[in-house]
């Protein structure tokens, strides 16, 4: 294994340790990841933009500051990939849409600013379903991302690019956004770790809004400790986001380092442990619970009867908010402009631009949301969905009255084949059945790998959910389970992923054309 | 309730300023009907006694001080992403026949 | 434009009862905008800035940007609500009003819909003829202003025929309070005047609270007038039109009057009124149809997910209530009494719109009578001639100084008018001008007597007449003396001395 290969397989925490110790420079680490991107991203297509020179400049700056004895953040010098939903000053930000192709924002999203201030090195922008609408990245206007475990399969979505980037060792860390599972479900299908923090824990300022009351930014990593370290960097109050929580947060990294499940009460959500889930997914899920139980956790069954309506409520609230949030893409101030043949009024230009600039899933949801909000339907649809939201919150409240955390499989199946569900939106929407309730209620959730499904050899994740503001509980249980599994496996799950050799990549690339 | 007509979809497309093709309208009419059928269950469980929730984390009175922020853009920055501008203002096609 | 029939106003009133409703938008003068920390162009400090220089990502609706409520704008809105006699909602929230227009950066306006911050108020409005109306307020809600469009090309500079339009988002996000009245009935022939007086009262309130620059010509205060007619004896309101773009007090009155006459002509001819938005044209004094209200006006309001409820504490509301200035109507009553003006005298002052100037002049030391004389007399005349606001010509302090100089006998009225012209011309304070121009009255009897004797000697026939008891003949001598003294003498004293000297020998 070359020096570069070794560097890219380090966890962010370990790489940070090597950087702090002076064993390796940030330029070396950054170059190693850029080389990896150069080698494999043609096949994986995790990135929409690679920052190349600018990343190396940033890394060199960090190395200089470290050499000058400056006190730097724990993750300083560690490369990071940024989901294209976050605006980045000086880097194109498209949210996976044609309508924003080439747009370079004049400002940084708050999580991006925090990441830069902490000395992390942005490598580039990662692929995603257009405006984060999807569960497979197949709705990206720039082509799908491929799952590093099987390049013919989906990497999950909407944040498939970020998940694939860390799974393919193109970056040790990535930022994601989770509106209905867009961090957790890609983690599940790529054998990585993804956390949706409590709503309001991380600022949404600069995150291109999908559904404002559901969106949350969070970490995408290979280890629970790395996720914790990254959440510690990006979380915290932001006066630019009214929904940002003002209270201080405890260290999530500390929660991982002190992880212990003895006496922890874990509730298994009965409604999400059903026949509708793939056998291998349920099997690994229950094995993980047994492992936790053997180490002192108490497993109890809980019922959340209103979760069954969560998807329905979600697919009203999300399109409604999205239809309004996406109205700003009108060809006036930024982005694409399409003028009808022979010219047209501004109204016609707007309509032509939006027709040409939005993909089918985005149009579908905008029309759906417009319908749900329109006169005469508001009460039945949007209004009712907001009430279901209350019922889902109540289910969480009564569950958390008895248990510390809840556990579910993260998604019903392992990674499906690209194209398999593309023409069936309802089937696609069901991918999010286990992840959506957390977004409706604002509670935090984590997904971490618990093994490979015996039937297809693909990764399976477990999801833990905690009460709002109790993100540390997720890092505790996640960190503990991860250690137990590592001990069982004798190494990270990703070690079992097929190597992305140049030979295979070329073959795939040829086949893909 | 879930019966959606092509005329309705065309009207929604106009409200949403998307110049959908006839084909898209036909396709969406079918799809929306199916999706609405799947989601209209919400109105059955949303009884009058249940209050709506619009924010997952209840906060209130979040205000900022009345002081100029550090994120005021220069005119160059403001216009940097514009498809068309005249150096100071954004340029759009004629509006015609409508006035606010 | 097709010829529009108008019915004679009096005839229209015989047949129909006018019902008006007014929507007034008040731009708040906070330092920054409603939801963005950009400088607020509706604050004098930022007026006239170059296009698109008062914007943040929020004002441009850039992807990822988020609104945050300006707390000071909320406090000013609550103060305004209280001054309108409204209840303040224990909890109110923002909503998105969705529609596409290029001056609306996000293509939705953040406004308030079903939960406005203030509701159920009443404003006392006094007309020029002295009638007093109580205008019921339905609600006052907070929202953001849109940007400004400039239409280029075509002959008129108007939207019709324009080749393209330019957008400036400086105004986008300026804090607005929209005040909506309930339908106002019973004003009858006074309806146009009431509309004008109502907006004028809102302006007075906004100014007294210090919450807005309240200049109609700058759009700090904007009015949409709803007008409908119902046939005499009918219970149900008629179909209304909403006239926009009415940007001066005079236009409000004219626009309402015009709509009454226009609608009456249509209804009397058996036609029907279309519910529509109409635009006021200052140049022609008429309204023209905008787009008709239709199903397309489906604004798809929903609670703004990026913002949280506004829940003002009882303490805050009471603090703001305690700090409220006197209501304009109550203040008028008090001033009228304090100044001892007759109804007519006070009405002239009130109608001239110079009440504040008068009060300030009295506060600066002038007697109410003198202050009234100057403001409604010479200053009004100068303002009229210059086509300017009286208040922009001269400050109340200078007027008080002038009045005091007259009272002390330092200046005659005539000299004082010269001094006033100097003040208006920017030459300095009245005293400075008196000193610089040497305009003070000659109070040295010796100098006067010398001039009188000379004049009497030059006009022996006049002298004879005076001695014969024809006292009015003295005018000729007085005139000659005043001329000789270049007006710098007190005519009354000159007259006394003339009579004294004429009869002395």
Q: Report Rg of chain C.
A: 29 Å
| Strand proportion of chain B | 5-15%
Biggest sheet features of chain C? 9 strands, mixed
Q: Number of helix segments of chain C?
A: 17
Shape of chain B: flat
Report the uncertain regions of chain C: none
Low-confidence stretches of chain B: none
Q: What distance separates the N and C termini of chain B?
A: 34 Å
Kindly report how far apart the N and C termini of chain C lie: 83 Å
Tally the beta strands of chain C.
15
Give the SSE string of chain B: HHHEHE
- Structural class label of chain C: alpha+beta
Assembly of the depicted chains:
heterotrimer
Q: What is the tally of helical segments of chain B?
A: 4
Count of strand segments of chain B: 2
The number of domains of chain C:
3
Strand order of the largest sheet of chain C: 3-6-7-10-1-11-12-13-14
In terms of DSSP E residues, the strand content of chain C is 15-25%
Kindly describe this structure.
Chain B: This is Aspartyl/glutamyl-tRNA(Asn/Gln) amidotransferase subunit C. Chain B: Pfam families: GatC. Chain B: InterPro entries: Asp/Glu-ADT_sf_sub_c, GatC. The complex is a heterotrimer of chains A (513), B (100) and C (505). With 513 residues, chain A is of the alpha/beta class. Chain A has a domain at 3-260 and 443-512: Amidase signature (AS) enzymes (Alpha-Beta Complex), CATH 3.90.1300. Chain A is built from 18 helices and eleven strands. Chain B is built from four helices and two strands, in the order H-H-H-E-H-E. Chain B has helices spanning 6-15, 22-39, 42-45, 75-79; strands spanning 63-64, 90-93. The model of chain B has no long low-confidence stretch (mean pLDDT 91). Chain C is of the alpha+beta class. Chain C has three domains: 9-51 and 64-145 and 174-318, no CATH class; 329-437, no CATH class; 445-502, Arc Repressor Mutant, subunit A, CATH 1.10.10. Chain C is built from 17 helices and 15 strands. In chain C, the strands form three sheets. Chain C has a nine-stranded mixed sheet. In chain C, helix 14 (445-458) packs across helix 17 (491-502). Chain C is elongated, with a radius of gyration of 29 Å. The relative contact order of chain C is 0.10. The model of chain C has no long low-confidence stretch (mean pLDDT 91). Chains in contact: A-B, A-C, B-C. Chains A and B meet through helix 11, helix 12, helix 13, helix 14 and helix 16 of A and helix 1, helix 2, helix 3 and strand 2 of B.
């Amino acid at each position: 294994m070359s020096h570069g290969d070794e560097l890219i397989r380090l966890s962010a925490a370990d790489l940070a340790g090597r950087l702090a110790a002076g064993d390796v420079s940030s330029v070396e680490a950054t170059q190693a990841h850029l080389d990896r991107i150069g080698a494999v991203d043609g096949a994986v297509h995790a990135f929409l933009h690679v920052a190349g020179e600018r990343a190396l400049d940033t890394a060199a700056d960090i190395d200089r500051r470290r050499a000058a004895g400056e006190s730097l953040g724990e993750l300083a010098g560690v490369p990071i990939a940024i989901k294209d939903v976050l605006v980045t000053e000086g880097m194109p930000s498209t949210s996976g849409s044609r309508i924003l192709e080439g747009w370079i924002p004049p400002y940084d999203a708050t999580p991006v600013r925090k990441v830069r201030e902490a000395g992390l090195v942005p490598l580039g922008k990662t692929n995603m379903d257009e405006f984060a609408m999807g569960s497979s990245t197949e709705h990206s206007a720039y082509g799908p991302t491929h799952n590093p475990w099987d390049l013919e399969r989906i990497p999950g979505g909407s944040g498939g690019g970020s998940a694939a980037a860390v799974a393919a060792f193109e970056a040790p860390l990535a930022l994601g956004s989770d509106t209905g599972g867009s961090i957790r479900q890609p983690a599940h299908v790529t054998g990585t770790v993804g956390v949706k923090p409590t709503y309001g824990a991380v600022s949404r300022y600069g995150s291109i809004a999908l559904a404002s009351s559901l969106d949350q930014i969070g970490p995408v990593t290979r280890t629970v400790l790395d996720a914790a370290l990254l959440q510690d960097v990006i979380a915290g109050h932001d006066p630019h986001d009214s929904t940002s929580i003002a209270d201080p947060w405890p260290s999530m990294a500390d929660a991982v380092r002190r992880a212990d499940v003895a006496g922890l009460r874990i509730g298994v959500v009965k409604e999400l442990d059903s026949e509708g889930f793939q056998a291998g997914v349920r099997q690994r899920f229950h094995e993980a619970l047994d492992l936790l139980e053997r180490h002192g956790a108490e497993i109890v069954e809980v019922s959340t009867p209103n979760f069954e309506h969560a998807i329905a409520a979600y697919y009203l609230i999300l399109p409604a908010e999205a239809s309004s949030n996406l109205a700003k893409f009108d060809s006036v101030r930024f982005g694409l402009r399409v003028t009808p043949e022979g010219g047209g009024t501004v109204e016609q230009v707007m309509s032509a631009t939006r027709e040409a600039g939005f993909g089918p899933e985005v149009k579908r949801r905008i029309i759906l949301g417009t319908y749900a909000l329109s006169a005469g339907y508001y009460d039945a649809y949007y209004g009712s969905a907001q009430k279901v939201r209350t019922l889902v919150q109540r289910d969480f409240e009564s569950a958390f009255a008895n248990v510390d955390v809840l556990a579910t499989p993260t998604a019903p199946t392992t990674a499906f084949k690209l194209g398999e569900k593309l023409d069936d939106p309802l089937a696609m929407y069901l991918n999010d059945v286990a992840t959506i309730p957390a977004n409706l209620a604002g509670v935090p959730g984590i997904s971490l790998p618990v093994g490979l499904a015996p039937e297809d050899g693909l990764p399976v994740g477990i999801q833990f959910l905690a009460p709002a503001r109790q993100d540390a509980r997720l890092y505790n249980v996640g960190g503990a389970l991860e250690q137990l599994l590592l001990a069982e496996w004798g190494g990270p799950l990703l070690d079992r992923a097929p190597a992305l050799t140049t030979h295979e990549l070329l073959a795939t690339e040829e086949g893909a054309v | 309730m879930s019966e959606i007509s092509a005329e309705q979809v065309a009207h929604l497309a106009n409200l949403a300023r998307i110049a959908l093709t006839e084909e898209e309208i036909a396709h969406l009419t079918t799809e929306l009907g199916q999706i609405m059928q799947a989601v209209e269950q919400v109105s059955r469980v949303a009884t009058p006694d249940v209050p709506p929730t619009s924010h997952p984390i209840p906060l209130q009175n979040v205000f900022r001080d009345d002081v100029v922020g550090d994120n005021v853009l220069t005119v160059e920055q403001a216009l940097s992403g514009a498809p068309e501008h005249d150096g100071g203002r954004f340029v759009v096609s004629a509006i015609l026949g409508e006035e606010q | 434009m097709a010829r529009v029939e108008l019915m004679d106003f009096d005839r229209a009133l015989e047949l129909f009862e006018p019902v008006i409703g007014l929507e007034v938008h008040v731009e708040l003068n906070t330092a920054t905008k409603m939801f963005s920390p950009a400088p607020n162009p509706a604050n004098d400090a930022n007026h006239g800035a170059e296009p698109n220089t008062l914007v943040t990502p929020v004002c441009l609706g850039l992807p990822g940007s988020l609104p945050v409520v300006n707390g000071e704008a909320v406090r000013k809105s609550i103060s305004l609500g209280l001054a309108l006699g409204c209840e303040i909602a224990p909890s109110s929230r923002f909503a998105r009003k969705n529609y596409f227009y290029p001056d609306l950066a996000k293509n939705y306006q953040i406004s308030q819909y079903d939960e406005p911050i203030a509701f159920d108020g009443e404003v006392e409005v006094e007309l020029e003829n002295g009638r007093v109306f109580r205008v019921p307020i339905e609600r006052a809600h907070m929202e953001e202003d849109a940007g400004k469009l400039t239409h280029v090309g075509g002959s008129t500079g108007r939207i019709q025929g324009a080749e393209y339009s330019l957008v400036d988002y400086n105004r986008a996000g300026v804090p607005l309070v929209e005040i909506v009245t309930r339908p106002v009935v019973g004003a009858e022939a006074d309806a146009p005047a009431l509309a004008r007086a109502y907006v004028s009262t809102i302006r007075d309130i906004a100014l007294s609270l210090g919450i807005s620059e309240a200049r109609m010509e700058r759009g700090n205060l904007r009015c949409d007038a709803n007008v409908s007619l119902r046939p005499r004896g009918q219970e149900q309101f008629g179909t209304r039109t909403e006239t926009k773009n009415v940007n001066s007090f005079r236009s409000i009155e004219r626009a309402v009057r015009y709509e009454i006459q226009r609608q009456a002509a249509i209804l009397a001819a058996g036609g029907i009124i279309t519910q529509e938005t109409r635009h006021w044209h200052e140049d022609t004094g008429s309204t023209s149809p905008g787009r008709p209200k239709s199903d397309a006006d489906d604004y798809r309001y929903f609670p703004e997910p990026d913002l949280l409820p506004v829940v003002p504490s009882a303490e805050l509301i009471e603090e703001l209530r305690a700090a409220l200035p006197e209501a304009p109507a109550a203040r008028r009553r008090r001033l009228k009494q304090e100044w001892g003006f007759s109804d007519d005298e006070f009405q002239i002052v009130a109608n001239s719109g110079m009440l504040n100037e008068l009060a300030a002049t009295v506060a600066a030391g002038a007697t109410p009578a003198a202050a009234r004389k100057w403001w409604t007399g010479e200053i009004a005349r100068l303002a009229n001639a210059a086509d300017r606001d009286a208040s922009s010509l001269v400050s109340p302090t200078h007027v008080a100084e002038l009045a005091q100089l007259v009272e002390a006998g330092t200046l005659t009225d005539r000299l004082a008018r010269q001094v006033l012209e100097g003040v208006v011309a920017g030459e300095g304070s009245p005293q400075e001008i008196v000193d610089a121009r040497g305009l003070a009255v000659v109070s040295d009897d010796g100098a006067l007597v010398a001039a009188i004797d000379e004049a009497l000697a030059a006009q022996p026939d006049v002298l004879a007449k005076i001695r014969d008891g024809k006292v009015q003949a003295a005018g000729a001598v007085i005139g000659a003396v005043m001329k000789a003294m270049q007006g710098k003498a007190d005519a009354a004293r000159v007259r006394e001395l003339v009579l004294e000297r004429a009869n002395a020998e």
